[in-house]
Structure of UPF0102 protein SAMN05421664_1611:
Amino acid sequence: MATHNDFGKKAEDLAVGFLQKNGYKILIRNFRFQKAEIDIIAEKDNLIIITEVKARSTDAFMLPQEAVNKKKIKLIVSAANNYLEEFNKSQEVRFDIISVLPDEKGKLIIEHIVDAFEAFDAN
């Protein structure tokens, strides 16, 4: 497996631990629908939380969350709609981003961006 894939997996594992520590129930990881993948689907306070995890080894070019563009949002929303139908979920949905970046000492820092985008941002 490529180093960037290892880093991405580590970032997702950190994000799952972070969410669990903050009271989220993880429902599924890496949910796929057509060309889309949702990194983490969780539940908290009767909401379905769709979470995109973005990790970078540096923010020299862009912040991790800036990689979630309109095309990516459209894919995530499509996959989220499929998940809700497939698992007969009727709760309100929130879309979050978890950004993972190393600090100057190499320690990975998690930033949880709650309600990062709306489903209509995909249009």
About this structure: The longest helix spans residues 3-21. The two ends are 35 Å apart (CA to CA). The chain has a mean pLDDT of 88.
